[in-house]
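Archive record:
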Amino acid sequence: MRRQRHGTSGQDQRQGRARTGSGRLRLIGGRFRRRLLPVLVHPDLRPTPDRVRETLFNWLATEIDSRTRVLDLFAGTGALGLEALSRGAGDVQFVEADRQVARQISQNLATLEVTMPVHHQNADAFLDTRPARPFDLVFLDPPFRQDLITNCCQRLEQEGWLTENALIHVETEAGLIPQLPIGWYLIRETRAGDSHTRLYRRESAQ
């Protein structure tokens, strides 16, 4: 069965797709641990499974604090960015192309009584802007089988989006080996069903 994706594709690709209701996202750690938040049900959208999310944030346990700037580039439900926020990240920015999905992220932030930017844009449009400051941690979980990872990674590397030793989480369909910039080193990986989760450390040549 085709994997439902954490992130969503371009806005024009989603127009007219019916949603079937709402589901729940459970935050699994940090100050908002066990909080349940509503998420839209969409054919191409669901939170990263709890087990994978827990593994990822175990890897990141010593990497997130109040100084950490986080970018959730294909935010979808916002599960990864919200989890980072719950675990102490001081600045989390969400990018989501679907208007209703982006609105739900904003509503969930309001429920948590937190103010963070939610950008209603697709990833390419967002990356056309220049960052005021680079990010320490980036989550990349784009729609599968649309060849989006390589371009995003190259732009993040070349256009000033990453700190010198930034961490980049990349989730792809199983079997895909992403073509990544020179200087990104794999430090952790796991596989669950049709998805392959990898964590990279950037080491700047400068």
